From TrEMBL:
The gene is pyrE. It is an enzyme of class 2 (transferase). One of its GO terms (biological process) is 'de novo' UMP biosynthetic process. Keywords: Glycosyltransferase, Magnesium, Pyrimidine biosynthesis, Transferase. It comes from the Bacteria. It catalyses: orotidine 5'-phosphate + diphosphate = orotate + 5-phospho-alpha-D-ribose 1-diphosphate. PANTHER family: OROTATE PHOSPHORIBOSYLTRANSFERASE, URIDINE 5'-MONOPHOSPHATE SYNTHASE. Catalyzes the transfer of a ribosyl phosphate group from 5-phosphoribose 1-diphosphate to orotate, leading to the formation of orotidine monophosphate (OMP). InterPro entries: OPRT (IPR023031), Orotate_PRibTrfase_bac (IPR006273), PRTase-like (IPR029057), PRTase_dom (IPR000836). This is Orotate phosphoribosyltransferase. Homodimer. Belongs to the purine/pyrimidine phosphoribosyltransferase family. PyrE subfamily. GO terms for molecular function: magnesium ion binding; orotate phosphoribosyltransferase activity.
Length: 200
């Protein structure tokens, strides 16, 4: 197995250096409150860091699946775009992305398509529940592709998210999270911030 050059600790150092490791009082997508939040976009805005993360994630997927036989990398927009592109660069294959239509259904647009039997990897920046990745996996399987693995820079599920295919992450976190009714930060009267990409 190839040794991964970027340890979880050195990746978290990159998050600290780029101001992407936020401390405060955050409302997560789950509705729970947390004193910390990793904003991947602030790391991936730097092409050198994005390229490093992509190379390491591709290596982790090769180690996980025992193969580098991949035909296409697919990401859900927006969060997965930069890292998916860089993972595709590392594999030397194309990168396409899915978008939600007006019914919120995940779809391939812009002329993107897959051939039946193509070997696909699904890449996101952050996995929390794995819901978006799972939707992409199902879309690809329905199109006749073979989904060999999924991956993300950050796994906020503590390793628990099940996306129905083997999955790799550069950092797996067990995030401190409080029920709003019992949140010590609420008790201190600190305003809560929604840090993610989705509107509140
Ligand atoms: Zn709170």
């Amino acid at each position: 197995m190839r040794e991964v050059a970027l340890s979880p600790e050195s990746l978290l150092d990159i998050f600290r250096q780029t101001g992407a490791y936020l401390k405060g009082h955050f409302r997560l997508t789950s509705g729970l409150h947390s004193p910390e939040y990793l904003q991947c976009a602030l790391v991936l805005q730097h092409p050198n860091h994005a390229e490093t993360c992509g190379r390491e994630l591709a290596a982790a997927i090769k180690a996980l699946t025992g193969t580098s036989s991949v035909d296409v990398v697919v990401s859900p927009a927006m969060g997965g775009l930069m890292i998916g592109h860089e993972v595709a660069r590392a594999f030397g294959v194309r990168h396409i992305f899915t978008e939600r239509d007006t019914d919120r259904k995940m779809t391939l647009r812009r002329g993107f398509s897959l051939q039946p039997g193509e070997r696909a990897v699904v890449i996101e920046d952050v996995i929390t529940t794995g819901g978006s990745t799972l939707e992409v996996v199902e879309l690809l399987k329905a199109a006749g592709a073979e989904v060999v693995a999924a991956g993300s820079v950050i796994d906020r599920s503590g390793g628990k998210a099940d996306v129905s295919v083997p999955r790799a992450a550069l950092v797996t976190l067990n995030v401190t999270a409080y029920n709003p009714a019992e949140c010590p930060l609420c008790e201190q009267g600190l305003p809560v911030v929604k840090p993610g990409s989705r509107p509140s």
